[in-house]
Batch of 4 targets.
Target 1
Amino acid sequence: MEEEISVVPIHKHREYLLECCKLINDEWKRSETARLRSLESSCDYLPTNLILLKDKIVIGHVKLSLIPSMKDACFVESVVIHKKLRGQGFGSLLMKETENYCQNHLHLNIIYLSTKGQEKFYEKLGYQECEPISLYGGYFPRNIPKSVNVNTSGPPAPPMPQNKFSLPQTQQKTYMCKLLNNNCA
Ligand code: ACO
C-alpha cells in the first residue's frame, strides 16, 4: 500500500497538537504547556506551524515566524524530523513543502533561519550564509547573500547591532537565507 505523505498547517488540524508537542519535546525539552501555547498560536499568517504527516502520524514540524522589519520574509525557528526517520529525505521534503507554502499561501519571497550544526543540510537545499538579522523590530535592510543580485530600495542600512563574530563562542549561529523566486532579481 502506498504511504500517504502531506504537509499541513497545525491550526487546521488541531487533533495533532499533542502529538506534535511530543515530537518537538523529544528533541528540545520544554514544558508541555509552553509548547502547546506556542503551537496554538499558529494562524493563517505568521506565526505558522506546519506538520509533516506520514500515514496520519506526525513525523515532522516546522515553525515559521514573523520578522517585523521584513514584510516579504519569514524566519524558520525550528525544524525537526522524528528521530527514527532521519536521513530518509523527510527533512528535505518538509523544507521544500514549507518553501511552497511560503510562496503560495504567505506570498513571501525570502526565508531566513539560523543554525548551529545543520549548515550542510540547509546548503543542500539551496540556503546561503548571510549576516545575522534582527527579529525584534526596527528597520533592517533585506539581508541576502552577496552572491545574489537583488534590487533593494529604501534608506541606507543602519549598522548591525551585533554579528556572529562579537558573540560568545557558545552562542555563535550561522544565519542563512534562500530567495524563493526570481522576481526579486
Ligand atoms: N550534516 C550534514 N549533512 C546532513 C545533515 C547534517 N547534520 N543532516 C542532513 N544532512 C544531509 C543528508 O545526508 C542528505 O544528503 P543527501 O541528499 O546527499 O543524501 C540531505 O542533508 C537531506 O537530508 P534529509 O534526510 O532530508 O534530512 P532529515 O530528514 O534527516 O532532516 C533534520 C534533517 C531536520 C536536520 C533532522 O536531522 C533533525 O530533525 N535534526 C534534529 C533537530 C535539528 O537539529 N533541527 C534543525 C535545527 S536548525 C533550525 O531549525 C532552523
Note: The helical segments are 17-27, 32-40, 90-104, 119-124.
Target 2
Amino acid sequence: MSPDTQDMDLVFFGIQGSGKGTQAKRLAEDSDYYIFETGGELRKVAASGSELGNTVKEYVESGRLVPFEITMQMVRKAVMAQLNGQPILFDGMPRDEDQMVEFDSIMEEAGRDFRCIHIVLDRDEAVERIKGRAKIEGRADDADMEKVNRRMDTFEEKTMPVIERYKEAGLVVEIDGSQSEEEVYAQLKEAIEYAENISN
Ligand code: AMP
C-alpha cells in the first residue's frame, strides 16, 4: 500500500465471525490506520465500573446494541480527537440506520472521507467460527448461542440495510470471507487500493 492511498478512512462491515476484527487488527499493524473498534471501546467503558459503564455492560453482555447517545458520543469524541491526518479504520460502526445518519454527519463535520469494505460470510459458517472463537477468547457474548444469534439477527436486520445504502452510493467493496485468513488479507489490501480510487 502506498502512503498516498492511506488518506481515506475505512469502514469495515461483516457478520460476527466473518474475520472482520482479525483483518482490521492485521491491517492496523501493517499500516498507518488508527483502528476504532466500537465493540472493544464499549467493552472498555463497561469495565470502568462507573454508572455509565454498568449500563453499557448490560447491553454488551446481552448482545444488544448500546443506546444511540452513549455510542455516538463516544464515536464523535474519537473522531474529533483524531485530527492529525492519520486515517481511521472503523470496525463495528455504523450498525443501524440512525447511527449511519449521525456517523455521516460527524464525518462531514470533521471533513473526513471514507470507503467501506464488506467481508461477506454465510451465517451458518459464521456461527461455526464463533463457536471456535468463544473457546479461545473467552468472551461471554460469544459463548452463549442465544446471544450470538441475537447479534447476528441485529446484523441482518439493522446493519445490512446500512451496507445496502452505502452500496447504492457506490462506496462498498465486497470480499469473500469464506477464504483463508491469508487470502482474505491479500484481497483486502487490493480492495483498499480499489476502494480509495472510487470517486464520489
Ligand atoms: P462486537 O464485538 O462488534 O460484536 O460488539 C460487541 C458488542 O458491543 C455488541 O453486541 C454491542 O452490545 C456493542 N456494540 C458494538 N458496536 C456497537 C454499535 N455500533 N452500536 C451499539 N452497540 C455496539
Note: Residues 16, 38-39, 42, 59-60, 63-66, 71, 92-93, 95, 99, 141, 151 surround adenosine monophosphate (CB under 6 Å).
Target 3
Amino acid sequence: MDEILIYSSFGEKYREAILKHIHDIKLTVALGSRDLPEDLGRFTILLAWLIKPEVLQRMKSLKWIHSLGAGVDPFFKQENIISDVTLTRSVANLPRLMAQYSAGVILNDNIGFDRHGKNQSEKNWAWEPFYDICRKTAVIIGTGAIGSEIARTLKFFGLKVAGVNRTGREAEDFNEIYPVSRIDSALREADYVIIAAPLTAETRGLIDKKKIAQMKPSALLCNIARGAIIVEKDLMQALNEGLIRKAVLDVFEKEPLSPESPLWDHPRVIVTPHIAGISDIELIADEFVQNYKRYINGEKLLNIVDKDRQY
Ligand code: OXD
C-alpha cells in the first residue's frame, strides 16, 4: 500500500478530514520540518504546499504530489526535482473566495464606505453618491479557474471584463481576451486590474514600471496571485508619481511583509496579509480523496499541473 505524507501545520486536520471518507489508507503527518520522519524514501504520495527542495530531494520514491494550495510555484524552486512525479493542485472553493475578495475591492472602491466612515466620524452628512459600475472595465491577468470565476462575478455586477492570457486563447466568461504580448492595450482600457495568474518564468516581474505607466492615472491595481509578479519598487515609484490611483495588495515579494516596507504606510495602498484564498481543509481533503480513488483505480487524476508551463 502507498505510504502518504501530509506535510502541513494543519496536518492533523487534513488527516481527520481524509479519514472521514476512507479508512484503508496509510497516512503520516509532519506539522513542520522538525517532525519529518527520517526515512522519507518510503513515501510515494505527498500532500504539501510550502516545502523546501531539500526535503523533496530526499523523497526518492515519490509518484504523486497533491498541492494543498492553488499556486504550485513552491514545487518549481529547483528545476527537474519533480520531473518524474505527477503534480495535482487544489481548486476547491479558492476561485470563489478570490472572486469575493476581488468584487469586495471593486465595490468598496466604487461605493466608498471608507470615505463615508470618515464623514460619519465627523457627523458630516456629505452627500457623495456612487455611480453604476457598468461603465467600468476590469482587466484580469490570468484566465484559468480563478480568473474565470472573478470574471463571472464582476460581470454579474455589470462591469465589462477583459482577460489576459499567454496565447490569447478564447475564454467564455470574458468580453474580450488579449494575449500577453498585447497586455499594454488591455492595461490602457482598465479601470481595475486584477492579477490572478500563476507565478512562472513568464509572469515573474511582468508588471513593472513600463506596464504600470500604460494604466490610467485613475486605475486601481489589485494583486491576489503572487507578489513577485509585480516589481514592488516600481509600483512604489509609480504610486509616488501618481501613475495610478491605488493598489490593493494581498501578496508580496517577501512574506510576511517586513515592518520596514514603505507599502504599510503608503496612503494609496491597502495591505491584506495573504488572505484572498485560504484553503478550506474539508473541501481540499474531498478533492484529494476523489483523486486518491482514481489513483488506486489507475484512472487519470483531476487538476494535473502541466510541468512545462508550471500551472
Ligand atoms: C494558494 C495561496 O496558492 O493561498 O493557494 O496562495
Note: Residues 227 and 254 are 7 Å apart (CA to CA).
Target 4
Amino acid sequence: MKRWIAFVCLVGLVTGAGAEDWLRVRVEVPSPAALDLLLDSGLTTYTCEPTLGTTDMALSPSQLPELDFRGLRYKVVSTLKNPYDVPGEERPQATDYRNEYFTFSEIVGFFDNLVATRPKYVRRVQIGTSIQNRPIYAYRFGGPSVLNGPPSKHYAIVGLTHAREWITGSVVMHIGKMLADSLASPSTRSLVGQRVTWIVPVVNPDGYSYTWTTNRLWRKNRRNNGGSTGVDINRNYAKGWGGQGSSGSGSSDTYRGTAPFSEPETAAVRDLVLALPNFAGFIDFHSYSQLVLWPWSYTTASPPTAGQLQSVAIALRNAINTGGVVYTQGQASTALYIAAGTSKDYVYDVRANAPSFTIELRDTGQFGFELPPSQITPTQNEAWSAMLALFEQVGS
Ligand code: 0X9
Ligand code: ZN
C-alpha cells in the first residue's frame, strides 16, 4: 500500500490544549485496506460512520505516531476531554433521570422501582449474565388482563448495547416510565392497549460500567480475547455474521467474536426475542446520527418487506420530527454503511419480517457520544414519540 506522509494540522490548537486533552483526529480513508488498517489498530473510533472518505478517531497525543506508522494521513479537528477522566460509579447518587445520566446500578434501581410501584403492570426477568457476572435484565410492561384476553402483540426494546452511547439508557428508562404510567391510568391505557413491551435497558452491563469507571469511549463488551479486549455485540448476531462491516481482529471496535452468539449479551437478547409470542416489533437504540434505520444492514439488497419497513420508518421519523429536531430514515446498509451481524437483521429475519429498527439518537456529531445532560429530556421525548408511532403503525 502506498505510504503517505502524515499531515498534521495543529494550528492554534496545541497552544490552548491542557496536558490532559485528547484529540479528535480526522483520518483519510481512501481504500477498504486503509479502513481495515485503521479499525484493526485498536485505536478508539469517534464516529458512527467509520467509512471510506474520512473517519474520526479519539486519540491521545501520544497515539498519533500509530497513524504515522500505518501511513495514514490525518488532521486534528478539535480537542476532546480525556476519556479516562471518568466520574466513577461511586459519585453521589443521581436522582433525576430526565436530566442526569444513571450508572448501571441506578438504571436497575430505576426499573426495579417501577416493578415495586406498579407490580400489576411491570415485571422483571433475568435473561442472562454478563462475562463479569452482572445480571442482564428484561422488564415486561403489560396489563394483567392480557393473560386472559386475545393474544397480545409483543415488542422488544433494547438499550446500551454500545457502552458509550449513554443517551440510549436514558431513553429506555423514559419509555419504561411512560409505559408503566400509561398502563396504570385508565385515561391513557388505550395508548398501549393490549400490547406487551419488553425492555432490556442495559444489554452490555460490563462495557457500560467500564465507561463510568475507566474509559468513557468504550464501545464493546469486556470479553478477554487473549491480547485484546471486547466483542462488538452488534456484530455478534447470526444474520450475515462474519461479513462486510465487521472485523475478525480482537482489537477492532467492530470485532465480531469467535462465532455468532458467542457472547452472553447477544445470546440473552436472542433468547428473549425467540421466546415472545406474536412478535410485532423491535427497536435497538444507539447513538448518534439522528437516523431511523431498517434492514438490511449486512447487504445492500432490498429486504422482502422494504415498502412496509420504509413506511413505518417514515411514520417514526415524522413522529420524532414534530419535536423540531430532524431525523432521517433509510435502509441501514445504504443510508449508513454495511454492517454484518447486527441485531435488527437477526430479529427481522428470525421473527417473520417483524418491523425491526435501529434508531440512532442525537446528535449529529457536535457532542457525539457525550451528549450534554440538557439534551436528555428532549431526546427521551423523541424516543417516546417513536414508540407510540410504532404501536400505531403495527396496530393492535
Ligand atoms: O455500527 C453500529 O452498530 C450502529 N452504529 S453505532 O455508531 N451506534 O455503532 C449502526 C448499526 C446499523 N446498521 C448499519 N449501519 N448497517
Ligand atoms: Zn451503537
Note: The chain has a mean pLDDT of 92.
